[in-house]
Predict the structure of (S)-2-haloacid dehalogenase.
Amino acid sequence: MTLALIFDVFGTCVDWRTSVARDVAAALPHVDAIQFAMDWRAEYDPAMKRIRDGGRGYVPLDDLHLENLHRVAARHGVTAPDSLNTAWERLDPWADVVPGLTHLRKTHIIAPCSNGSIALMTRLARYAQLPWDCILGADLARDYKPNPAVYLASCAALRLDPGEVMMVAAHNGDLFAARDAGLYTAFVPRPTEYGPDQATDLAPEADWTVVARDFTDLARQMA
C-alpha cells in the first residue's frame, strides 16, 4: 500500500528553463537568456557526479549552482552577480502541479525527493505554493540521486519501508533508480522541460507502477 509519494522537483514539478531564463534576462540583458539557462543546467549533473562517485565530499546544490553560474558566465563573457543564484528558488510550477498536489495530499503524505537542498526546496515551495508535508531529498542522505541512499533516506525519514513509498518523476532514469531501491514508481511526462526540441523522456521507458498525463490524472489514479 502506497502511503507516501515523493517527487522529483526540477522539471517534474517546476519549469526551470523559462523561469531561470527570466531572471537571467533581468540580470544579464546582453546574453541569450534561454541558452544561458540551458548551459547552467547542463553543469548540474557533472557537478553532482563528482560527489556521487566519491571524488568530492557532499556540497549542497546551492553551492554547486553558484560555482556553475560563474563557470557558465565566464564562457558567455559576462560577470554574473551571486544574487542570480537565487533564480532556482523562483521557479514556476506547471499548471497542473498545485491542484494535483493538493488533491494527493488529502490521501497521501507528499514531499519532494530532490537534489535541491532543504533551504532551496523550502524557499521554492513558498514561491510556487507547493503544499508539501515536509522536505526530503539529498540533504538528508548527503548524496545525490540517482544513488539509492537518497531514496532510502527519504523513506527512512518518514519511517516507511520503500514498498510503502512511490517516487514520482518526469525522468525515466530517476524512476529506474527508485525502483531498484524498492519504491513504487509513477511517470508524468514533461515534454517541454528542455524546450520544443526535447528528445528525451517523452514517454515511459518501462512498466512503471503508474503512468499519468499530469498531476491531476495522477491524483485521480491514486484516489
Summary: The chain has a mean pLDDT of 97. The beta strands are 4-7, 14-15, 92-93, 109-114, 136-137, 165-169, 184-187, 210-211. Residues 16-89 form a domain with the DNA polymerase; domain 1 fold (CATH 1.10.150.240).
